[in-house]
Amino acid sequence: MKHFALGGVLAIGLAMPVLAQDQITLRLGMQGTEGDPQHQGVVEAARVLEESSDGRITLEIFPNSQLGNFTEMMEQLKLGELDFTLNPFGGMNPWVERAIVADTPYVAQDFEHLQAMIASDWGQSIQDELRSEHGLLIIDDWYFGTRHTTSNAAIESAADFDGMRLRVPNSAPLLSWARAMGASPTPVAFAEVYLALQTNQVDGQENPLPTIDSMGFMEVQSHLALTGHLVQDQAIIASAATWDTLSEEDKALVTAAFEAGGDVNDRVVREREASLIADFEAEGATVTEPDRAALSELMASVYADLDERFGDGTVASLTGLAGD
């Protein structure tokens, strides 16, 4: 789904119109590394933008957190010192707290469902607040991957999580998910997860399949459970200070370029996810598919807390968008 964020953006008056003949250099900072799907996507966006503008608009890319961590880059966006960055929609909760619902396990069933959530009145209200209160707007939304669980024992149902020392990031939604499954959540620095698995400091971990592969986690784990508990995205976030300087023509060129980049990113991620399961099995891993509906039922108390914080029926209204 495209164009979900732009309905209320393009109608906003331009503060400093840029003349069509002006040379424009836009800067994008990201935490991702060269060669990963998101980097391939922004490289494609830069190519398309330069081509479609006849070389008049260029996108300069700064990967590997060269411009700082995400929080620092977001502050640069708000100040107009940086033009674009990437972050999950649910990760916008430091600025609009209720966005955290999108980052809560089993709320979104798949990427299409997550995009429907972002395009809903709920998602649009968050985007409006990001724009009006923080000078941030979302241009497009890309697929990052779906998180699954690895371990050294089969996970076929919630009972198999009981007592497991499960490494999760220091993220409130994922900590709550691990506890709801019956595991003992154990935050470990990402760079130290391989060693923690190898030395049995933890029994398992969870990540998207491409990350599991790139970090070599299946070298020290024998089982992969397709828990599919969290669908993650990467939103292209723009500085409103920059966006308001662009002409309508240039906004359209930039939007189309990021959509083209998103197509590349999404294709690469989906292709890798599709092939990696077979690759892991060929290398000796045992793959199981727990009943996700049964696992999601264990999240009831977590969802009740979200409803208490953000309004009765919030979670049900969003989960109900699946298949719309």
TrEMBL record:
Keywords of the record: Periplasm, Signal, Transport
Principal cellular location given in the protein's record = periplasm
Q: Where does the record place it?
A: Periplasm
What Gene3D superfamilies is this protein classified in? Bacterial extracellular solute-binding protein, family 7
- Signal found in the keyword field: yes
Provide an example Pfam family for this protein. Answer: DctP
CDD domains to which the protein is assigned, alphabetical:
PBP2_TRAP_Siap
Any GO CC annotation of this UniProt entry = outer membrane-bounded periplasmic space
Task: Set out the biological process GO terms recorded for this chain's protein.
Answer: transmembrane transport
InterPro entries from the UniProt entry: DctP_fam, TRAP_DctP, TRAP_DctP_sf
Record flagged with keyword Cytoplasm:
no
- Which residue positions does the secretion signal occupy? 1-20
NCBIfam families, per the entry: dctP (TIGR00787), TRAP_S1 (NF037995)
User: Which family is it part of?
Assistant: Belongs to the bacterial solute-binding protein 7 family.
Protein name, entry field: Sialic acid TRAP transporter substrate-binding protein SiaP
